[in-house]
Amino acid sequence: MWKRIQKNIIAGIIFLLPAIATIYVIQLLFGLIDSFLGSFITSFLKVLNVITFDNGRMFFLGVYTPFSERLLGIGFVLTILLVTWVGAMRLQGKGLHIFNAIDRTFRRIPIANSIYTSVEQVIHAFAQERSSFKNVVLVEYPRKGLYTIGFQTGDSKGEVQRVTSRACINVFLPTTPNPTSGWLVLVPKEEVIFLNMSVEQGLKFIISGGVVVPPDPSSEGEYAEAIVDESNMIVHVRPMGKDEDKHE
User: Fold this and answer.
1) Residue 193: its pLDDT value, please?
2) Mutual orientation of helices 112-126 and 96-108 as an angle, nearest 10°?
3) Is residue 59 pLDDT above 80, yes or no?
4) What is the rounded CA–CA span in Å between residue 202 and residue 215?
5) Angle at the Cα of 239 (from 237 to 244), degrees rounded to 5?
6) Closest CA relative to residue 187, chosen from 203, 164, 205
7) CB under 8 Å to 170, separation ≥6 — which residues?
8) Does the pTM of the predicted model rise above 0.70?
9) What is residue 193's three-state secondary structure?
10) DSSP letters along 145-180, please?
11) C-beta of residue 171 within 8 angstroms of C-beta of residue 189
12) What is the mean predicted confidence (pLDDT) over 19-48?
């Protein structure tokens, strides 16, 4: 009885933990951002008499609000607007000297520069364009029988193609957990195994050290067979192939 309860608890934790962690992180970020900018904006609006206080109650343009310290959420909204504005400036190529100055400043600060570069590398890995990494492949490396996940970046051409006299492809073999570092290998096309997983799935697989395993698309065509154990009131579910399904 206790083992069954223990299994139910563990299963519940595994199912709910991602949602709880997501809510916690969002709540933490909202609190940090809103408390920092929200207090500043509230003080600024107070100077402009847009916000007034009377007996611990806050009034916005003369209208009573349920808040007592700051306008809740205004700092978070301003942050979203600021991030959107910065993104638009970057995409339009405006203010590059300011962005470059900020980048150089963070890279020169001790300790902070390692955090800054690490986060930047991870973000760039996830934001990698599909044109850079075309396919996810498997290569027998570092020896026969061992496989390494890599990304096809293109086909070997020019002098490399002439010297090898074989149709080779360029494969980038990333390191774990930092996929932005690695090395380039030129592999004959017939010795490369092309996978169906997307580039994003391959990056997640590498960054997680193999913890996040992408699903196999070929298994999506299987059916589920339910076997009911009435004595123990348990339902066993197992995959059933198409061929097996046809015989029934």
Assistant:
1) 92
2) 130
3) no
4) 11
5) 120
6) 164
7) 152, 153, 154, 155, 156, 184, 186
8) no
9) strand
10) T-EEEEEEEEE--THHHHHH-S-EEEEEEE-SS-TT
11) no
12) 78
